[in-house]
Design goal:
The chain is an alpha/beta fold. It has helices spanning 3-25, 32-44, 58-68, 84-88, 122-134, 169-174, 186-195, 209-219, 226-240, 248-251, 260-276, 284-295, 303-307, 312-322; strands spanning 47-51, 73-77, 89-94, 99-104, 111-115, 136-139, 142-145, 151-156, 175-180, 254-256, 300-301. It is built from 14 helices and 11 strands.
Length: 326
């Protein structure tokens, strides 16, 4: 694609993305970071993990976004007694016809909200992992492709840990983004209360499913210089070989460094972030902006880190402060 044509298409995307933000803002007063990250995840073709306490408009934001995008949206509450069939569906025997028919589960949608994902056992997580990784579902001896676009938006509560399961590292790595959902400000709290008793404007459709797929393909063409690739490589390798980058002080805090999937993810996110800024090229600030949500759930911390109360965000800050763009 010629540079001028790419720039024109990026400008169109920038306008549509701003319209999408405005539509979501009709019902969601705050959560600008959450909205941005959801848009980034959507157009990068990935999944997002949301963390913090209940009641912070996670479900409302996802539902509102799906309406503005004319996409399907389903929500399923994960519980310890949940079965894989509750998620993907099952074969049902019809005695009148002497055969089986397929009943599809809630996973057959575009936006799937899995509430409190860490409450479901490993069999359910395995069924979800197939959908996240392969964009397909196996029911019995048949495999069904999921309709594009498909995105899993999972929530987990870090406060209440009783009756929960630790998500496997392989599954965490499939979430290309982990966003920490924050509390509203004092002003926003007042506006939230007022909105609850007012009739709000209807959500208008901004993009269709075909538009989403079109812009997902367009964003892949956003230019990324070799210096950016080298910078991401150095950030990733600094988690694997800290001493090589003069970061001996964090070596004891990292059990396992970032995988190649993290490298791919941060480039994909940076390209969307550039397009959301109206640019057809990635700059180092895009990488720095997305490093926290892309890296924070992929760095496996050691027992020393837990004992010293060192968080993954602390490690990421050290990486960004010390690893330079060459």
């Amino acid at each position: 694609m010629e540079k001028n044509i790419l720039n024109e298409e990026i400008q169109k995307f920038w306008e549509l993305a701003n319209n999408l933000r405005k539509e979501i803002a009709k019902k969601v007063v705050w959560q600008e970071t959450l909205i941005r990250d959801m848009i980034v995840a959507l157009f990068a073709g990935g999944h997002i993990l949301l963390e913090w306490a209940p009641g912070l408009a996670k479900t409302l934001t996802i539902d509102t976004m799906s309406k503005a995008l004319d996409t399907g949206f389903k929500r399923i509450q994960f519980t310890p007694d949940l079965l894989p069939s509750d998620l993907v569906g099952t074969k049902i025997y019809n005695p009148a016809k002497w055969d089986f028919s397929t009943k599809f589960g809630p996973i057959f949608t575009n936006f799937l909200l899995t509430d409190e994902i860490n409450r479901a056992p490993s069999k359910v997580q395995s069924a979800l992992l197939e959908a996240m990784a392969e964009k397909q579902v196996t029911i019995g001896d048949e495999t069904y492709k999921l309709e594009a676009p498909f995105m899993v938006l999972a929530t987990q509560n870090p406060i209440e840990q009783e009756g929960t399961y630790t998500l496997p590292e392989a599954q965490l790595d499939r979430f290309l983004l982990k966003t920490i959902v924050v509390y509203p400000t004092e002003f926003e709290e007042i506006q939230i209360m007022k909105n609850n008793f007012e009739k709000l404007d209807e959500i208008q459709k901004v993009l269709s499913k075909s538009d989403i797929i079109k812009y997902q393909d367009l964003i892949k063409k956003v230019y990324c210089d070799d210096k950016i690739f080298n910078y991401v490589r150095d950030l990733v390798f600094a988690t694997r070989e800290p001493a090589r980058f003069g970061l001996e002080k964090i070596a004891a805090y990292i059990s396992y460094g970032l995988s190649p999937r993290a490298s791919i993810a941060v480039i994909a996110w940076a390209k969307v972030l550039a397009a959301l800024d109206g640019r057809s090229f990635v700059i180092p600030e895009d990488i720095k902006e997305m490093a926290y949500p892309v890296f924070r759930h992929r760095i496996i911390m050691s027992y020393d880190a837990i004992a010293d109360e060192v968080k993954t965000d602390d490690i990421i800050k050290i990486l960004l402060d010390n690893v330079k763009v060459m």
